[in-house]
Amino acid sequence: MKNEIIKMMVPAVGESINEVTISSWLKKDGDIVELDEVIAEIDSDKATFDLTAESSGKLKIEAQEGDTLEIGAPICSIEQGDFEVQESAKSIKSENETEEKPKDINIKEREEKREDSTNNVTPVAQKIIDDKGIDINNISGSGAGGKITKEDVINVTISKTEEKLETTESQNRVKMTQLRKTIAKRLVSVKNETAMLTTFNEVDMSSIMGLRSKYKESFKEKYGVNLGFMSFFTKACCVALKEWPAVNAMIEGDEIVYNDNCHISIAVSTPKGLVVPVIRKADELGFDDIENEVIRLATKARDGKLSIDEMQGGTFTITNGGIFGSMLSTPIINAPQSAILGMHNIVKRGVVVNDELVIKPMMYLALSYDHRIIDGRESVSFLVRIKELLEDPSRLMLEI
């Protein structure tokens, strides 16, 4: 009797997602898989998703790593039946023992080294390493304590996971990822479809830096998280957005939509590109809640585990180019939002205070905004309010 074959199609992974790219297969063609076992990872223009087996049986791969498929397209099939996983494993083991027999002296040393190294590798990363035969010594871990993550392995094998189109002595062409193509389209769209302007100001960071230094230990002891700059900027933006609601609004057709809550998007750089997860109702959160959300969302972003919901619904964006050393920039609006605040690096500069030249830790701020909905007075006043709140954190705590 012929075994039944289950055809697997590309699943729907989000409302506005029409196609995905196969990032990596975690199983090989012909492998025996279990129901609901993760067999591959697929990239959309917004996030990375796990593809799980829809049945137990023998896997037949129909689409290769790097292929871009439409939702509903065939991706693989699974032949149901009584397949012996143990026999396959035993056969592989037997072959390996035959091949490695002359080198028995080194086997123990290699196994001990492998055991030590796998303690500092995530399970998904280890699976890719095993399947592709990658030397773990060539991979630098970016996770906590130097732990090797899936992204670290993908970065090492990028030439295998992206389709190489052409190589010459001076060029190496690779196919754009789905995320990179979407970023490119959106950036061009924003430049062409909005009346974007940028206004600048600078802020003296002395008070915030002094406050953090004074209370960082007690804050961490109480809340279990560090007191960072992002919570101050997020709270300051929420206060200012309430006072200047047009900056927290957006255009839909011929209507202006004003938002009651401040859903703050934070730009996070990942190995695959820029993603912008959202801190929901940041105006209702405390400093500790904001810091915890920043850590949670940034970690999921870098691991490629953000959900669609976690990246939708933002009303205002904060981006920090200062962590890369940027002194000044003009950030591009995150459509359909109407404004974005750019933070930059903190540099000690000479400034005049009470007719005296003093050295202060200064940061330039940039607010890019859509002039169709936000007037010059509103944009400048909004940024001045941010400056006031950050230079006197007591105002920020009391929201005055």
Number of helices: 11
Give the total of domains.
3
Name given to the CATH homologous superfamily of the largest domain: Chloramphenicol acetyltransferase-like domain
| Amount of beta strand | 25-35%
CATH classification, class level of the largest domain: Alpha Beta
Task: Give a topology summary.
Elements: E1 5-9, E2 19-25, E3 32-33, E4 38-43, E5 48-52, E6 57-61, E7 68-70, E8 74-79, H1 85-100, H2 104-118, H3 123-132, H4 150-156, H5 158-161, E9 164-167, E10 172-174, H6 178-193, E11 196-204, H7 206-223, H8 229-243, E12 250-252, E13 255-257, E14 264-266, E15 268-270, E16 273-275, E17 278-279, H9 287-302, E18 316-320, E19 339-343, E20 346-353, E21 356-370, H10 376-391, H11 393-398
Parallel strand pairs: 14-18, 18-19
Antiparallel strand pairs: 1-8, 2-4, 2-7, 3-6, 4-5, 6-8, 9-10, 11-21, 12-13, 14-17, 15-16, 19-21, 20-21
Helix pairs in contact: 3-4, 8-9, 8-10
Task: Identify the notable features of this structure and list them briefly.
3 domains; Chloramphenicol Acetyltransferase; 7-stranded mixed β-sheet; 4-stranded antiparallel β-sheet; Dihydrolipoamide Transferase; alpha+beta; 11 helices; OB fold (Dihydrolipoamide Acetyltransferase, E2P); 26% strand
